[in-house]
Structure formats: C-alpha cells, structure tokens
Amino acid sequence: MHWSTYDKILAKSKPEKSLEEHTKDCFDKLLLVLDWKKELITKICQKYNLDENLILKRLFLTVAFHDIGKANIRFQAKVRGKSFEGLESHPLASVPFIHHFIKDEPILEYDDNMFYPETLAIVSHHNRLYKEVYGGYKTMKVNYAEGDYFENFIDFVNQQAKRFNLIHWQDLIFDYSILENVIPFNLFHDDVFDQVPNFKQTDKIRDIFVLFKSILHYSDWLASSEYHNYQYVSDENIDSLTSKMKIKVPHFKDWQGFQKKAAKINGNIFVQIPTGQGKTEASVLWAINHNSSQKIIFLLPTMVTTNKMYDRMKQFFEKDEIVGLSHGTAQYVLKNNGEIETEDLRKHYLYNRSFFKPVTIATIDQLIYSFFNWGYWVLTGSASYNAKIIIDEIHIYDAYTFGLLLKIIECIKPYNTQFAIMSASLPNILKEEIEKIIPEYTLIQEQKFNEKQRHLLETFENGIELKINEILSDYRCKKKILIVCNTIKKAREIFDLLQDEVSKEHKMLYHSQFTLLDKKDKEKQLDNIRDLKHGFIAVCTQIVEVSLDIDFDVLFTENAPIDAIIQRLGRVNRKGEINLRLHDMEFAKVVICKENEASRKYVYKGFEKILEDSFTQLQKFEKGLLGNLQEQHFKLIVDLVYTRDNLGASFFQEINEAKRLIEKIWRKITNNIYTLQAEQRQLEDISSRKIDYITYECVLLKHNIIKDFPKMLENKQFDQVKEYTLKIPLYIAKKYGARKISDNVEIFMIDLEYDEVYGVTYKEGTDFNII
C-alpha cells in the first residue's frame, strides 16, 4: 500500500464522505448540541470552578480531531473494503493530534497528574475504557498521510472555529513533529490514561468526562446517521396536549385542578394522588411546561409497567422518534409490536438504550446501572443531567434500591434536573429521607380524593381458601373478581379449587413462572377484562400490583404490607365508577384474608411486624368505619404501620450502604470513568436490586424439541428465543440440571413440565414459595 493509491482521505464509505466533509457535518451538529447542553456546561463549570470559555474551546477541538486518525493508510484501505496487514485503530491514531494542542493546559491537575477528557473521549468514542484498553495495540505503528494534508486540515479547523465565536481563540498551527508519534499507544498511556487512577476527585473527574464524551457522541452519531429530523427535546406544550386529549379521550373537557397546578410548577413536585386518578397526566404536563432543553425520563419498577407506560406516552407524543423504551426486553417488545421497520430496529434500540430520544420510558434499573458505569452509561447519565425525571411508584422499592436511587438523585440534582416523585402510599418516614436530598418541592394533592371512597372493606381472620364459596357466588353474579395471593403455591391452590365450577375461558392464573410470550398474552387478557359481559376470575400473585391499568369489581387478597394492599386496591373500582357498570354496587367489595405462614417466612421475611400491624390497623379501621374506608384512611394506616421501630435499624443501614456503593464502584472498580466489565459485576455481585434468590434465564426442553433453540441462536434469532424464556430460581435450576445452551449467551435449558394455563409445574416436594 502507498498513499499514491488514494486520491482523497475518506471518513465514510456508504455513502462516501471525505474526512473533512464528515468533520464539517460534526461541526454542524456540535452547534446544535452546544445549545442543547448549554445549561449543563454552565452548571458543571460553576460547580467545579472551570473556565467556561476554555471548556467550549476544548469541546470544539475534541470534535475537530476525533477522527483525524483516519488519515492513516490502513484505515483508508479498510474504509474501501481492501485488505491490509497489521493493526488499525483510528481513535488511537488521533491521540498525537489532540494531545499536541491541549497538553500544555490540562483541564485539571492533581499532584503533577494531568486530566485530559478530550483525549479520553476521542479514544473511547468507538470503545469503552477499562484497565487494559488498547492493550493489543502496544506495537501499532501508524503511517499517516503527508504533512500538507494536515496543514490544509488545520486551516479548515481554523475556518470552522469562526462559526463558534470562541472567546480567545488563536489559530492552530500544524507541527510536523506530531507525525513522529508513530506508536500512539505509548503517548496515550504514559501522558493520559495511566494518570487517571491517581485522581481522587470522584464526581469531578466523572462529570467532566461524561460532558466531553457525550457531546462528542451526539455530534458524531447525528452526523453519521443522517438523522436530519432529530429532536433533542419534545416540542409538545399544554395546548397541543389538551387538543390531543379532546380528540382521543371521550368526554374530556379540561384538566383537573391538581393537574393544572402541577403544570404551573417550575421545580420539583411530589404527586400524592390515589391510583387511577390522573397523576400520570399531571406529571406529563409538569414535564413539558417550563422545559429548558430538558429530556423527559419516566422511570418505573417493572418491565410490564414500563411497556404499558410506553403505550400511554405514545398517545401523548405519537412518534417513534420521540418516545423511547428501555429495559431488558425492549427490543423484543418493539419488534413484536411491529411499530418500527426491521432495518431501523437496531438504530431505535441503540437510541432507546442510550436515552437518546426526547422522551424515554425505562425501568429504574436502566438509570441505576448507568451510575454503575454499565453499558451506555455516558449517554444515559448525561441525559439525566438537566432533565425532567418522573419516578413512579417510588414506594415499591426495597431499602437497597431506594438507597441507590437517593444517591443518584443527589448526584444529578445540581445540574438543573427536576424531579416528579409519584406515590399514592409513600410512608412519611421514607418521604423524610427524600426531603433530605430534595428539600424544596411542591406537594400536589387533591382534597376531594382524600375523602373519596372506592371500596367496602372486610377483614377475615382465616385463610383465603375458606372464601371459595363466596368467590364463586360473586362470579355467578357476573362479577369480575381479582384474587391476589402472596406465593405461586397458594395461587395454584386457589385456582385448582375453581376447576369444577368455572370454565377455563372464564378464569386465568398469572404469576412470574410463565414464558415471556404467555405473559404477554395474559396481560392482553387482563387489559380486555372490562369488555367482558360474563363473570371472570383472575388468580394472581403480587406481580399484578404495579401500574397495570386493570379494573375489577371484587378483590379477595391475602394480607400484605399496607402499601402493597393499597396497590391491590388500585386494581378494583379503579376510577370509582363501578355503579355505571354494576348498578347494584356503589363500592367495590374487598376482602382481606389472613396471610399464610409462607408469606411471613419467605415473601415478607424481615417485615413480620409490618405485616402484623397492617392487618391489625385494617381490622381497627374496618370496625370503626364499618368498612367504609376513604383514601385518607389508607394513607393514615401507612404512617401508623411504617414507623422507624417497625422498619428496624437494619432497614436504614441498608439505605446508607447502598448510597455508599456507588462511590465505592467509582473509586475502587471503575476509576471513575472506566466501564464496568461483566466479570467485575459478577465478582462484586453488583445489582440494582437486592434479591433473596438468584435466577437463571431458562428455556424449556419441551419447547426446544419444537423450536431447536441452539440453532435459532446460531441464526441470531435472539428475539424469538427470548419469547420462550422464563426466570427460574438458581436452587431449582441446579436441582433439575439446567445447562447452558450456548457459550455466547447466558440462557439455560431445563427439563420441567409446563403449560400455558399453569406455567411451570414442579415435582411434588419442591418448595415453591416465590411470586
């Protein structure tokens, strides 16, 4: 190979673009990105006492030289599809150029160590930083283009700088000594990378790196993708949203008072409104109003609730380009909804995972893992800075996840990030923990909801199985009945008691031990429950508790902590309009039965006092009010039950340990800016949830006989395999001899009985007290 072979220096081949043309495209996008990120740049400079003009200049230089290393002879062969000998890495080959122009004025210095986020962003814009990054490139020599090419390129950069009105800009002069750095690995490690672990200012190093790398990513991705219509934020406003509601929602006339109040607030809000009364709409109005280039991020507890919220947000924002979905099976959901063309799916999936779209609906885990430096953490993390973040059902999380969330709020709050915290049943004692971090907020309540009654409540001192005759009687009266048990074992027991009395079309069993495909079918069945003209019985575990927009007439449930009871109550007479469909009922019938021993021993272990006091207080209020409990009474019970004594010192210790975990990961594992590796995550047992039992993702042998999963994986049919997966507890997986079906994926094959009615069936004697 010789330079005379090539008539121009290419950056892209499909379509063909020269390096100068691509860099010009990146500069065009950078002008937009700097405007979008203006608030974040200012806040970071203020917090860390940085010269904002210097930062803007360095961001410009980062984009200017991010691909300059493509002017090497091996890359030019590669981009044209030709073979070449030796190693090629254009990010590494770019290091001598950027380093030459910034080395004498580092962004940060610490004990003779220099921090160069520009160089670190460039070398990682196609890679992730980790301890041995580019270890295989120690001997890579670079054959750069002729010097006159770089002189002309520098002249081009100087011309472009005029567009940015950079303060104190001085034209760059090309120095031929740059081309003498033929082994850039040594320069990168000796002068830049090896100094990173010496910096002790955890937040500072990480935030500055996130700023530089995210702005480079936005500029480069948008220039490379031809995403001409990209919007950083939504252009919806209250008027446009109101117009859509009048068209799409029958009988809609105007927003409720509390929703209008939320829309007016320019700051944090705490929405304390009962389930099913419109708090989601309130949060959306808050998010789109007073929005200063802020992305909207909606965080929920589970994948099921996230999928449902994604569907709702698409009604508000309408376009796939506006609303993103991010969780473990999001790609499967998008593909099977048929909303996005196949060739665009990968692009949308990447944008969704990185919170690239104006509105992102995600599980809480996606944000937490970004603060573990996992996956696309730079982009998800930067999207959470200067954002409007809605956290729904915050009361759902255990002490560990709650603590992680508190720490993350603390980290991103300084960057003009505003929060809408939503819960119908958050105890005051936990609300006080949030107030330590977000002391200034507006409480959104509605007195009419406090005095509203939706249920007629009865407690029952015995097990739920003794209520079967009453359940059947309600069913024969064409009532839609929800039964919630605390374990799968109990749910199956109740379901079996219905066998001879209720036809299979009029009942269903729903719990965690179904395949993804069957779960989706059951969720559709639940969604359509209101359209049935006959009685129906759904026997579920607490998987049904969170954010499913379902509406039954009658609830029979085992006792649970009061906040869980409130969630279950939200699935019956959800809108408080039961008498419109059942004229003989003013309120939904609710029967709370005593929990079984397995609930205390397994499901709510450590919360025995909470469980006991929940039932005691419900009995007390039932007796005093003859079962006519209003919303305010349930909130009062929450605070009577959730006391510091009942939660115990260990609960608050776990919160504090979780808060310390994030800084520990940054300091001791990722050196603030490395990406967490899979083996590190497993070794350190790093997770967004503290779980009592580890699960394996499994497929079943009986399905494999038909589908041949190993062959499907060979053909990269990952989504089709995903349809048949289910989570099996580790102790059960080992007992039944689960084995990996491929070295490349963490999916196991297991021989268990299964059908779409019961889910997984275990042999007699298996202890199965899970949900």
Please tell me about this protein's structure:
With 771 residues, the chain is α/β, with parallel strands linked by helices. Helix 25 links the parallel strand 16 (554-558) and strand 17. Helix 12 (257-264) packs parallel to helix 13 and helix 27 (608-625) packs antiparallel against helix 28. It is elongated.
Would you tell me the overall average pLDDT? 90
Number of helices: 35
Strand content: 5-15%
Please bin the fraction of helical residues. Answer: 40-55%
Largest sheet: spatial strand order:
7-8-6-9-10-5-11
Contiguous runs where pLDDT drops below 50 for at least 5 residues: 338-343
- N-to-C CA distance: 64 Å
Question: Strand count, sense and closure of the main sheet?
Answer: 7 strands, parallel
Number of beta strands = 23
Summing up helix and strand content along with how strands pair, one would put the structural category as alpha/beta
From the spread of the alpha carbons, the general shape counts as elongated
Oligomeric form? single chain
Q: Tell me the radius of gyration.
A: 29 Å
